[in-house]
Sequence to fold (449 residues):
Amino acid sequence: MNKISNSLAISDQAHSIHPYTNMRAHERDGPMIITHGKGVHVYDSEGREYIEGLGGLWSVAVGFSEPRLREAAMRQMDALPYYHSFAHKAHEPSIKLAEKLAHMSPGDLNRVFFTNSGSEANDTVVKMVWFMNNALGRPEKKKFLARLKGYHGITVAAGSLTGLPANHKDFDLPAIPVTHLTCPHHWKNGQGESEAEFTARLLKETEDTILAEGPETIAAFIGEPVMGAGGVITPPEGYWPGIAALCKKYDILLVADEVINGFGRLGTTFGCQRYDFTPDIMVVSKQLTSSYMPLAAIMVSEQVYDAIADNTEKLGTFGHGYTASGHPVATAVALENLAIIEERDLIGNAARMGELMQTQLKALEGNPIVGEVRGVGLIAGIEVGKKDTAEAIGPMGVLAKSVYMNAQEEGLICRNVYDTVALCPPLIVTEDDITQMVERLTRAFDRTA
Ligand code: PLP
Fold:
């Protein structure tokens, strides 16, 4: 390790608390310091090059060196580096971005509220839904339905909606009323059923839960069209239209968490369009700015908006918001990022390159430790497990972590989530990038098996 990175590493080990990290292991092993990026590649302090196969944290559409985003940020820094949106204040980039998002989204999701992160956005969803139901005179309608393995963030309410053990254990979550339904993963959770039978069972479970708890107590159902951080789980055929129909039948709001799916990841603008349903509320982040700036948005239907707005008239305000809600630099960067996605047809590229990636990855099913390869568009999960029985091989997550470490040695950054190795590369990937990425991952699996 060179002198500068060595002293940075020592300082990091002495002072930084890293998210999602075993802190004692970090004190022993130290960081991997990333110094710069170019296109789909990032480079570490030792000069090693990696394909960023997860687009950072499922989030970079335009690659790691887009000059137009830097220029958009600089222009906005010069014009107005900060202003807020409280109490009728406004500025051009956030106005334009809200309008742009309203035009892009399905249905009548015309009203937009900005936060800084996906977690804050989902906390805001919870508060908006509660505020709305209180205003409508149904204070008992407060519970959420979510799914095991769903990921909605880590703040107190969002972390409660998340359906992963590591986010609950010893954090005293869930802390809000939420019921986690079966994860819609056919390969793992199907009981010898066809996909259609599996869907029917999940829908029955959902309806039974609604009836057992009382529809008058259930405010909303939240889900990612394709689950990301829980292990890239694609829903079985007919699942989402079925869920949407149940929500309508029992007057339950349907919330699409599109923090990973949104802006082309699945080869469609939003994930709900890929799976043929229109939510009442949609949450986006990550690829909204390619994560060059922190930003998330909640889009709500006119009906939800009206109920909330009427109550703010009654109370005199909407007592919720963040210092940086709709930050001018973040919203300016988002506008430029969305313009690039459109001009370069990155959603079309995601559809085309996604097909290539999914086809090439299928060959991994020949590897003895690979149970299932799944995905859609430019997101994929390769599950370590026994093909015929879907059972784990060895202790949970251990082999997947070895694949991840071996992939890193092969020059590919991916992510291991429990028994799944996940890929979610930038939307700018080329055929050559896909081929190299799959070759590196294949070598990692071969070394691990
Ligand atoms: N929702 C989904 C679907 C996510 O994947 C994430 C983060 O990965 C979040 C919410 C939380 O976003 P953040 O990490 O910005 O708080």
Q: What stands out?
A: Residues 57, 117-119, 122, 151-153, 224, 228-229, 257, 259-260, 285 surround pyridoxal-5'-phosphate (CB under 6 Å).
